[in-house]
Amino acid sequence: MKKTEREKMTAGEAYQQFDPELIERRKLIRQQLKEINQIVDNEERNQRFKALLADAGDDFFVESEFKFDYGFNIHIGDHFYGNYDMTFLDTCPITIGSHCYFGPNVGLYTPVHPLDAAQRDADVELGKPITIGNSCWFGGRVTVLPGVTLGNEVVVGAGSVVTKSFPDKVVIAGNPARIIKQL
């Protein structure tokens, strides 16, 4: 049975980003987010965000200007707080554990563009999932790149660019991020 472009995308396989189904979903999400991000009432805004995600647990709270591509690849555990201006590019699954707190301007990016110019010119794209454990804290302007897995109780310093995976109970910071302390 032939996979859809959405199935290939979610699996991290090469897919056509301009597939009509994917274009329609991105348009729907942009329309919804434009409206939701303007809602002043916290409970209403957060319930509307949650309705667009694959799943989000209890005590989900995000400030305004939350942006993402699809929503169906975002999985968030209980007790999540996201500050202003989060961007989650969810071509592949983004999985966030429980009790995680993100500062402002956090970006989680799963798309991987081919190094080969001919593939890029042909609009081929792929992705790699991002997985974040429980009880993690991200400072402001943290960027997490495709394929990264962070363990439980990881603290990421403000302005860090996380290019590789890290184990449980570490403080990481820098560009690229490196361990600066064991917890």
TrEMBL record:
The Gene Ontology terms for molecular function here are: acetyltransferase activity; O-acyltransferase activity
Q: Which SUPFAM superfamilies match?
A: Trimeric LpxA-like enzymes
- Entry-linked InterPro entries: Hexapep, Hexapeptide_acetyltransf, Mac_dom, Trimer_LpxA-like_sf
GO CC term (a single one): cytosol
Arranged from A to Z, the UniProt key words for this protein are:
Acyltransferase, Transferase
- Tell me where on the tree of life, at the top rank, the source sits: Bacteria
Q: Does the keyword Acyltransferase apply?
A: yes
Give TM segment ranges.
none
* Maltose/galactoside acetyltransferase domain span: 6-58
Assigned protein family: Belongs to the transferase hexapeptide repeat family.
Q: What is this protein called?
A: Galactoside O-acetyltransferase
Write down the species.
Loigolactobacillus coryniformis subsp. coryniformis CECT 5711
